[in-house]
């Protein structure tokens, strides 16, 4: 089923899946140190190694829409990304993006989250289903909806949702640790 075939509830469900996938991509990328944050830092990376970038997020709230300098930066970054076949998403709700990414730099200052690049440090990341889902959404938006830069509104998370997500992450971590221990034990028996 293509993006243009979705209607009503299906489109809402699809958007929720993409938002969830984006949050997962950002969390994984952050843990793998494959995120570049800030307009200036992003421009430097795009100039030096554009082939390592797999996704560009341009984040702005309503008050940022009136910032002419920021919009010029966005236009230049979008043009560069299109020229280098890098998928782009516009993200509203910078505060939610700050929650996902930590929101502060090493010195404790608020980070410039207007531009976030996700890089591909390992070939295995291309096999990541969450990244694949986000990339497919970007490409389907271009192809079927003629949206070269689709917009995603990151919803605020309530406390109950955050607790559930935390429990799920702990379960996954325990499951992965158990899998590693089984693999280690199996490899010792085989050798």
Please, could you describe this protein's structure?
The protein has 191 residues and is of the alpha/beta class. 56% of the residues lie in helices and 13% in strands. It has six helices and five strands, in the order H-E-H-E-H-E-H-E-H-E-H. It has helices at residues 8-31, 39-48, 68-83, 94-101, 129-145, 159-190; strands at residues 35-37, 53-59, 87-92, 115-119, 151-153. Helix 1 crosses helix 5 (129-145). The longest helix is centred in the C-terminal third of the chain and has 32 residues, at 159-190. Mean pLDDT is 79; it is low at 1-7.
Short overview:
With 191 residues, this protein is of the alpha/beta class. The protein is 56% helix and 13% strand.
Q: Please state the CA-atom Rg, rounded to the nearest Å.
A: 18 Å
Largest sheet: 5 strands, mixed
> In total, how many beta strands?
5
Order of helices and strands: HEHEHEHEHEH
- How far apart lie the N and C ends? 47 Å
- Helix proportion range: 55-70%
Q: What's the arrangement of strands in the largest beta sheet?
A: 1-4-2-3-5
Low-pLDDT runs of 5+ residues are 1-7
Question: With helices defined by DSSP (H or I, 4 residues minimum), what is the helix count?
Answer: 6
Mean pLDDT: 79
